[in-house]
């Protein structure tokens, strides 16, 4: 188990409404590599599409391969329909996924808003 912890890396994928941000960190939390769909010169509605998500995921897999990591922890933040596609691309690669953490930041109606005072 000690060997897997030394050769593991954390991939954090943050989904926003117009962009997807990928961050590779080690177990301490130091950022090793980051990219987003916006940094790849893709603009407007083409940003969040199936083709762009797969190409950026392949770029991330290549970057992990260059750093000689075999084990990966995946953290997904936000809501997007391409979460399963990213996991499918990661499973098809040489990497072995140790854990998947899915964080949804949606409130279930939450706290009541304060009424605006009218004069």
Relevant CATH superfamily: Ribosomal protein S11/S14
Output the CATH topology.
Nucleotidyltransferase, domain 5
Shape: globular
The main sheet comes to: 5 strands, mixed
- The poorly predicted ranges are none
Element-by-element helix/strand order: HEEEHEHE
Mean pLDDT: 87
Q: How many domains comprise the coordinates?
A: 1
Radius of gyration, in angstroms, nearest whole number: 17 Å
CATH architecture: 2-Layer Sandwich
Note the total helix count: 3
The proportion of residues forming helix, as a percent range, comes to: 25-40%
Could you tell me the number of beta strands? 5
CATH domain class: Alpha Beta
Percent strand equals 25-35%
Could you characterize the architecture of this molecule?
A hairpin with a 4-residue loop joins strand 1 and strand 2. This protein has a single domain (2-103), classed as Ribosomal protein S11/S14 (Nucleotidyltransferase, domain 5, 2-Layer Sandwich). It contains three helices and five strands. It has helices at 2-6, 50-66, 83-92; strands at 8-15, 20-25, 31-36, 71-77, 96-103. The chain is globular and about 65 Å long. The chain has a five-stranded mixed β-sheet. The chain is α/β, with parallel strands linked by helices.
